[in-house]
């Protein structure tokens, strides 16, 4: 195992009615005015925004609101948020939503705290030195942005989806009330749970020859828990224990815990999906499922023992005559699980039929215009990426 550093500065407030504490949590930050950033109408219709604003009012915290965040959050709204915050003197951002809202909030925070165009930081032309403080009221178990150092934004000019990882953007606090997720549509629940799993699986399929055994067991246990809880939540949307398990797993899957002592993982599937999401505006978790098995079958021969371990320990697959046979059984079992919760395992299952030209374009963008490779389990160049996309279409 490798040496590592582990940092989780986010204050978690977890449980029923924890939303009522948000005003006090914000007031503790000593801010003058808050931006409440949120997505669509569900936060209003459910009464969540009213509960948040009432809690802020009770704590004497001034605020302004900006909604409109969509899946694959847009740079244009980030820029609008930056302008609004400067005009209103905002010095704290409260994200009321899931990963897209939190990522958009972090981007606004970067734009407020650093000079120049915020997009330059996502293009890695500049490195941010700070971020306006962000807190969150989480509404879906999915991205794990509430405890991660990452933010992903889509630029409508060219539909480029780019991520930025920096410790300074970690949320000051995360309010997590599992009951908020009771009314989520099944597709969002399943897509979110898939995202949680993929954050762990990206780290699990490491190029390390001897990763930390305890980290492996934490990852395997988390994956089994999510698989159990998402099926329970789909069966009974108001199963509190299942919803709570998914929400906590969301944070643990992306706060670095399941990568301690490793090289950090592969992350090819996320890079592949980012281009799909940027071009076709699909749900992130669903897009990850659509490319995973094509990626897995491509890279598995490089280390079939790793996939065989995943198959037996996570999916309960009976070992075959050799690691390759066991690994293939595991990939099949993973596909069967995704289908069982309504997730796709091919791009075509999302109603998308990219042309060959589209696939080449996706591969070109995925390599940042042929300037990089992706992955660590197996390093993938533009042609290898194209072949994976091609397999994933069928």
UniProtKB/TrEMBL annotation:
Domain Alcohol dehydrogenase iron-type/glycerol dehydrogenase GldA, chain residue ranges per copy: 9-178
Transmembrane segments: none
Domain of life: Bacteria
Residue ranges annotated for the Fe-containing alcohol dehydrogenase-like C-terminal domain, each copy included: 189-393
Protein name: Iron-containing alcohol dehydrogenase
Keywords recorded for this protein, A-Z: Oxidoreductase
């Amino acid at each position: 195992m490798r040496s590592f550093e582990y940092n989780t500065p986010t204050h978690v407030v977890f449980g029923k009615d924890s939303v009522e504490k948000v005003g006090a949590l914000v007031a503790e930050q000593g801010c003058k005015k808050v931006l409440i950033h949120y997505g669509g109408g569900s936060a209003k219709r459910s009464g969540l925004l009213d509960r948040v604003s009432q809690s802020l009012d009770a704590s004497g915290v001034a605020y302004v609101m900006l909604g409109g965040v969509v899946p694959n959050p847009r740079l244009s709204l980030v820029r609008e948020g930056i302008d609004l915050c400067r005009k209103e003197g905002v010095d704290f951002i409260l994200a009321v939503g899931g990963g897209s809202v939190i990522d958009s909030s972090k981007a606004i925070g970067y734009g407020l705290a650093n000079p120049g165009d915020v997009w330059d930081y996502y293009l890695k032309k500049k490195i941010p030195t700070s971020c306006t403080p962000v807190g969150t009221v989480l509404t879906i178990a999915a991205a794990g942005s509430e405890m991660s150092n990452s933010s992903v934004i889509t630029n409508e000019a060219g539909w480029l989806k780019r991520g930025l990882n920096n410790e300074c953007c970690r949320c000051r606090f995360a309010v997590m009330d599992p009951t908020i997720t009771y009314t989520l549509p099944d597709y969002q629940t399943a897509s979110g749970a898939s995202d949680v799993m993929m954050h762990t699986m990206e780290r699990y399929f490491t190029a390390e020859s001897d990763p930390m055994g305890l980290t492996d067991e934490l990852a395997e246990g988390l994956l089994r828990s999510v698989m159990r809880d998402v099926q329970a939540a789909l069966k009974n949307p108001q199963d509190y224990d299942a919803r709570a398990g998914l929400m906590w797993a969301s944070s643990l899957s992306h706060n670095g815990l399941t990568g301690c002592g490793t090289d950090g993982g592969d992350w090819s599937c996320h890079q592949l999906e980012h281009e799909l999401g940027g071009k076709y505006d699909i749900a992130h978790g669903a897009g990850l499922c659509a490319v995973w098995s094509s990626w897995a079958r491509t890279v598995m021969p490089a280390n079939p023992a790793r996939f065989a371990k995943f198959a037996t320990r996570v999916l309960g697959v009976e070992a075959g005559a050799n690691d390759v046979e066991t690994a293939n059984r595991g990939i099949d079992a993973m596909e069967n699980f995704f289908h069982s919760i309504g997730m796709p395992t091919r791009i075509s299952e999302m109603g998308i039929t990219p042309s060959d030209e589209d696939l080449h374009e996706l591969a070109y963008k995925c390599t940042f215009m042929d300037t990089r490779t992706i992955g660590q389990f197996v390093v993938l160049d533009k042609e290898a990426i194209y072949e994976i996309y091609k397999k994933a279409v069928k």
